From TrEMBL:
GO MF annotation list: D-amino-acid oxidase activity
Protein name per UniProt: D-amino acid oxidase
This protein's encoding gene: DAO1_2
Residue span(s) of domain FAD dependent oxidoreductase: 16-225
Classification via InterPro entries: D-amino_acid_oxidase_CS (IPR006181), DAO (IPR023209), FAD-dep_OxRdtase (IPR006076)
PROSITE patterns in alphabetical order: DAO
Protein family: Belongs to the DAMOX/DASOX family.
EC code: 1.4.3.3
Species in which this protein is naturally found: Sporothrix bragantina
């Protein structure tokens, strides 16, 4: 289905615009392990370690010392030695995960509330991933605990936007699985994609994607690959 705008005469009061388009909805609890399995199938070796400096990642290579490091540390780029990008800040998100209703198809809805840092969105994950009700975009907020008042606002807004969530029975009929809080790694001046040399080691940076990391992942990965290939080419010539 092509991207199109809905007829404004059909919208409920308070809704200024509605758009329809076909997209992808990812159940991240399934998608991320699938990515790991693809990496393992291609010979990638995973290691867990605590490093205080980005260059300290190089000796963790499975065979010897790596000639290059790719930095995808997200919000932790603030404190990682050799990077310490204090412009990276959290954009706090809070959601309520409820059980899928059989009558709700996979959809994404979005509406902005009177508060500039609050929004209403509904994402029905496939394969039993539950329905995500949101949310907020609170820049600079480090609170990792769910806000009960905001949770009620989220439920109320989502049911008002989509009464079919509870078959018209109101937000009290929602079957809540859990409450969640996450920090989007926001870099106000934009994503950092590029190469620099730290302690003599080429470091390719890829962080600061805010709330659209999944959407941009393949494009940014292609850009990182091009930086890596360029660096490898330079090293080979030397």
């Amino acid at each position: 289905m092509a991207f199109k705008s809905r007829d404004k005469s059909t919208l409920d009061p308070g809704i200024h615009a509605t758009y329809e388009f076909t997209s992808v909805c990812i159940n991240t609890a399934i998608y991320l392990p699938w990515l790991v399995s693809k990496c393992l199938g291609n010979g990638v070796v995973f290691k867990r370690a605590v490093v205080e400096h980005v260059a300290d990642a190089a000796p963790l290579h499975a065979v010897g010392t790596a000639h290059l490091v790719v930095n995808c540390t997200g919000l932790m780029a603030r404190d990682l030695g050799g990077v310490e990008d204090k412009t990276v800040i959290p954009a706090r998100g809070q959601v309520v995960v409820v059980r899928n209703h059989p009558g709700i198809m996979t959809t994404v809805s979005n509406s902005t509330s009177a508060k500039t840092d609050e929004m209403v969105y509904i994402m029905c994950r496939p394969s039993g991933g539950g329905t995500i009700l949101g949310g907020c975009y609170q820049v600079g907020n480090w609170n990792a605990s769910p806000d009960p008042d905001l949770a009620e606002t989220i439920k109320k807004g989502c049911v008002a936007l989509c009464p079919a969530l509870t078959q018209g029975k109101g937000m009290e009929a929602l079957s809540v699985i859990r409450h969640g809080v996450g920090f989007r790694p926001l870099r106000p001046q934009g994503v950092r994609l590029g190469t620099e040399h730290v302690r003599g080691i080429p470091v390719v940076h890829n962080y600061g994607h805010g709330g659209w990391g999944y959407q941009s992942s393949y494009g940014c990965a292609a850009a990182v690959a091009s930086f890596v290939e360029k660096e490898v080419s330079i090293t080979a010539k030397l």
